[in-house]
Design brief:
three-stranded antiparallel beta sheet; 71 residues; 1 helix; mainly beta
């Protein structure tokens, strides 16, 4: 099992808040929300559309923003 930084259930949820790294991981980043369901490119790489970025972003370059609980 590979960890793509975002779980399959979260990847399938449009509107999930994320931090996306469109170039090299941990380089420039964008806070946004997912705009699509995840899909696989021809080589099998899973990608998703993220608000504020063009083209699919590999799930290896997307982290879900977790909300802090007020417990």
């Amino acid at each position: 099992d590979e960890d793509f930084g975002i779980t399959p259930v979260e990847a399938m949820s449009v509107g999930t808040p994320v931090v996306a790294y469109p170039g090299v991981r941990y380089g420039r980043f964008v806070y946004g929300i997912t705009r699509s369901l995840a899909w696989n490119l021809g080589d099998g790489t899973p990608v998703v559309l993220v608000q504020g970025l063009s083209g699919g972003i590999a799930l290896t370059h997307v982290d879900v923003v977790r909300q802090a609980s007020n417990a």
